[in-house]
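step=encode ok
step=design start
structure_in=
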């Protein structure tokens, strides 16, 4: 097998390799690279982009990706030469037969709430420096906002869920996360300063409202929460076309999202008792 190229068809320079690092640091770097590749979903990402975003040297990225390719954890797209998550990752996930306690606890509240509100609901968790959409419900209103798929990963600070999640943690910790994601924000045409202002506003309100959602012409409201000890930090989001989320309707949506959060937490608690 030929070694990986830079995602644009040009081979990576193999002569300028990085200095050896200890095992723990190599593992952390590999996981960081995997998260960035996962963010690219089916389209994948180039090695150059991985190196830029992670701030890991390109030779080191090349060396790690080469190992991940050999193990089937990463695959390279034949045409674009970009990198995506490989088939071994979903196969490894099959080893966990039980469903996430949070997903089990959220199933009925999500089903009920999507029917009441009529618009699309998302359940998102925080994982490291990212948000991860783990559930979505489509409401009965004819026009739905399908801005995220289950499995979509975004840097904390990009989506309304990410802003709401950051608003629930200490300000210094939130600022550190935004600074670490600074380079990644460029891909989403936003900036650390923009996200910081949104986090401050969400902290003041107790929820996040995005008057312009990830998709133009849409709007989103997110309420963040943390369940019992050991539960992931999560957010419940409603996304709708702007004309559906009027100023008059916003308070009712927030109240219903908060009730949905209470129901989810209550289900988590009862499952543990």
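sequence_out=
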């Amino acid at each position: 097998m030929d070694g990986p190229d830079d995602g644009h068809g040009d081979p990576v320079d193999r002569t300028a390799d990085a200095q050896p690092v200890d095992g723990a640091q190599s593992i952390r770097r590999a996981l960081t690279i995997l998260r960035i590749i996962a963010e690219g979903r089916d389209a994948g990402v180039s090695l150059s982009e991985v190196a830029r975003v992670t701030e890991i040297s390109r030779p080191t990225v090349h060396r790690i990706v080469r190992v991940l390719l050999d193990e089937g954890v990463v695959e390279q797209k034949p045409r674009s030469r970009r990198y995506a998550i490989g088939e071994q990752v979903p196969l490894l996930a099959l080893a966990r037969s039980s469903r996430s306690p949070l997903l089990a606890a959220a199933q009925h509240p999500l089903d009920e709430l999507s029917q009441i509100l009529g618009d699309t609901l998302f359940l998102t968790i925080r994982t490291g420096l990212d948000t991860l959409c783990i559930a979505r419900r489509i409401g009965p209103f004819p026009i739905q906002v399908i801005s995220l798929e289950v499995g979509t990963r975004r840097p904390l600070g990009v989506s309304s869920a990410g802003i709401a999640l950051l608003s629930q943690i200490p300000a210094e910790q939130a600022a550190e996360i935004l600074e670490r994601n600074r380079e990644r924000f460029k891909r989403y045409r936003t900036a650390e300063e923009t996200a910081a202002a949104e986090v401050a506003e969400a902290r003041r309100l107790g929820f996040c409202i995005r008057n312009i959602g990830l998709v133009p012409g849409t709007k989103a409201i997110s309420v963040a929460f943390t369940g019992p000890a050991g539960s992931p930090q999560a957010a419940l989001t409603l996304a709708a076309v702007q004309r559906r989320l009027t100023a008059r309707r916003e308070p009712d949506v927030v109240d219903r999202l908060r009730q949905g959060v209470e129901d989810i937490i209550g289900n988590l608690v009862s499952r543990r008792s």
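step=design ok
step=annotate ok -> The chain has ten helices and eight strands.
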